[in-house]
Ribokinase
Amino acid sequence: MKPRITVVGSVNMDLVFRTPRMPALGETLHGHEFRQIPGGKGANQAVAAARQGAQVNFIGAVGDDGFGAFSKQCLSAEGIDITHLTTVAGVATGVAGILVEDGGDNSIVLAAGANACLQSQHIDAARSGINGAQLLLCQLETPIATVEHAIAVAREQGVKVILNPAPAQDLSPVLLKQVDFLILNETEASQLSGISVIDQVTAQTASEKLLAMGIVTIILTMGGNGALITQQAGSKFIPAVKVDVLDTTAAGDTFVGAFAVGIANGLSVLEASIEAQYTAALTVTRLGAQTSIPQRQEVLDFMAQRKAM
């Protein structure tokens, strides 16, 4: 049977511009191309999990506009259950303006739109989807009170929780203690730990501080510099998978979604992290968010090619 994962999170329409570099303040810069691509951290992670073989239930909100209708269509086409993807009247769907440099780095500006309307009552209406899941997956592009409520519901039912605390913000120790797997990048680790993460040594120090807050497992992703797994039993560094980078958009989301499927399938944290690394590596060789996320067979073929299996 497919593993069951419930995602509480955001839906955005990504407006993606490819540019030779980031524009200076007040500068008008000619870009190479423009694309409109479905995105949002929650939706990206849901798509990543679905393409890696999970049965995914999505809880979120879109506006009653063309972007919302198209986003629902795209998620449904992935086999994702959108029964609890609410349409909010009179509100725009979330939008992300994304500038992607030729080197692959990006800068993003978000307008939350309907994502800000996701409330605790929406979580209560979808309790059956959380109760029947093996994992609950959350991020922070929806109101923090809603995320806290969803995690509390999961804990009541013994459902394990993965939190991707992005975009970075301060979180209460009470919330962090309810998280089984915290997956974050250098910026988010710096925000939560108060330690500037700039290399593997500072990543280790920050992770140990977060571990002391009661989190069971911390996975600190560092892009092209690899990832660090920290648990009470010790730490393990995983080198990055080297590829030619086109666009880093959704790489982190792909890692999170693929990791969730690995854990739900019974893999160890190390095994799930390695598979997630390879899945994310394929993502950065392609343009866009959901358009770049690979299918399961592509990942297996890639790992076999790199002799990772």
About this structure: The chain has a mean pLDDT of 95. The CA atoms of residues 120 and 145 lie 7 Å apart.
